[in-house]
Amino acid sequence: MSARDPGHPHERISALLDGELDPAHRAEVEAHLGECPACRAFLEGLRAVSRAAAEEDTPPVPAGLEDRIGWRLRSGRMETAVRRARPWWRSPVPLTAAATIATFGILFGVWRLERGEPGVPELPVRAQRGVSREKDEASASRAVPPPVGAPAPTPSVPASPPPPRPERAKKEKAPPPGAPREAPKKRDESRFAPAPPSRAEESEPRVIGGVVGGVVGGVMGGYMGEAASDEATRTAEAPAAPTEARQAAPAAAKLRNVAQEGQAGCANPWMASPPPGWSLRSADPAAAGAGLVRLAARLGGRGDIDGSQAGTWHLEVPRERWPEFAAALRDVGVAEADPLLAVPTTAVCAEVRVTIVP
Amino acid sequence: MLVTMAQRKTAAPEEAEPDLVGRARRGDRGAFERLVSEHLSHVWRVVWRIVRHDADAEDVVQEVFLAAWQGLPGYREACAFSTWLHRIAVTRALNHVDRSAEKLRRASWPIDVPPAGDPDGEPPLARLADAGPSPLEALEARELLRRLADCVSRLPAAWRTVVALRDGESLAYEEIARILDVALGTVRSRLARARIALKECMEGAAP
């Protein structure tokens, strides 16, 4: 008997109703019911409630929900496939371990060089002269482990083979303009970097350290570079988008997301069902919609009033511009309720239908 | 030409659920879409009964199947696929309700404390011991359902969930316990308290 129903086994009466009592408790409760009119009435009341709850109408499954799930599954699957396609040695754990080992090796090498231990060649005069300890460390760190995406410096690794990642090397040949990966190239490091030693000056530890650092740095740089390439692309291309959005949508500050609803179609052949749209509220729907259309146009897309539904704008941008467009929509107040809405892209286009109501 | 999932389902031959689950775990999206077709109505009903809002329920149901697809490699068949799926559905639905915690607080009341505005009043639970003939019998079915819907909406989400799973889906207590990851006694207790609260609510609403 529960402490919540002293004197009357209400919990067990409820369980009796469901046939969820073991025989001993069932007999006990039935005996009590035979003596207690209040509990008999209680049982009938619970029976009525349970029956009513079972018969409560639930709305039918919304039309198109299954297809919308299918569409989103396809979007989600693309992300999963990309993740699964990554080989084990590109997963974060081995790379982090390799980078840690390389860092310690480099630091150890620098420490030995500074101490001038036997067997370790002295730094070239140009690197030692007039350079403080901090600058020296900074130059060493710049010179040996390449920053994200940068190739390993050749002076310390004259004989090291390039990392076996041709596809990455191909990508690194044409980084996006202005991307962070290019920044180190612009630095004039010649004043601080040690002069390239001759082969005769190189000692074995340094060669090994250089090879390890070069290979690990190459792999790490390639991995990080690839992982960050999309981000770098967005960074390189995105700056104008939020500003555009602010300028394009006069009623931007008043926009807010109220629901996801509606559907939009995309002319892409593999898309079996349309992506969900967004519904916004604005004090000036016409101005806000026109602003969104201008924004889509500036990103190389297009937009127009959807003739089939008042207050709805049909917007489409090239797939590669979707991150900017989504960012701009967020900038005008659209809360991205579902992260998967960030990738409503097909092979060629990203499309959304925005309904704006006053 | 658009091909819907329902059309694909009818075109595909019958296949046992364990086989579909196995294929889906190996990344066969078509197999998973058939699982979606088979379980959509159940998941929809459970989610709707917890969330009780069409658009919100639709969002949650989509989340449920996407989460299931993404989490499928981790499904180890320690429980039935439907149990696993219902667990996701209930969790997502309750999370959704939690995000509206303030609204929920306004709409809910505990059954074992005095009524609001009457601190010295008798808790609804205490009155049950002296309950006489139920006025529920006098209610017409439609009116009963309307009031029931209103009363269910006021229930705490955790109680609403057990009602949805037991009375709505006719699941056994043990199955509900697995879905909610709680003890069997907790299921029994929550269900009894939910039904008592519903009964009280409807009796209070009776003319």
Please tally the helical runs of chain B, counting DSSP H or I stretches of 4 or more residues: 11
Taken from the alpha-carbon principal axes, the silhouette of chain B is elongated
What summary fits the major beta sheet of chain B? none
Radius of gyration of chain A: 33 Å
If strands are numbered along the chain, what order do they take across the biggest sheet of chain A? Answer: 1-2-5-4-3
Oligomeric state of the chains in view: heterodimer
Structural class of chain A: alpha+beta
Biggest interface, residues from each chain: A-B, 52 and 62 residues
The geometry of chain A reads as flat
**Termini separation of chain B (Å)?**
57 Å
- The average pLDDT score of chain A comes to 57
Described by strand count, sense and barrel closure, the largest sheet of chain A is: 5 strands, mixed
Spans of at least 5 consecutive residues with low confidence of chain B: 1-11, 106-112, 124-139
Strand content of chain B: under 5%
Number of helices of chain A: 13
In terms of per-residue confidence, which ranges of chain A show pLDDT below 50 for 5 or more consecutive residues?
A: 77-87, 119-275, 336-347
The end-to-end span of chain A amounts to: 57 Å
- Which radius of gyration of chain B do the C-alpha atoms yield? 20 Å
Order of helices and strands of chain B: HHHHHHHHHHH
Q: Give me the strand/helix succession of chain A.
A: HHHHHHHHHHHEEHEEHE
Helix content of chain A: 40-55%
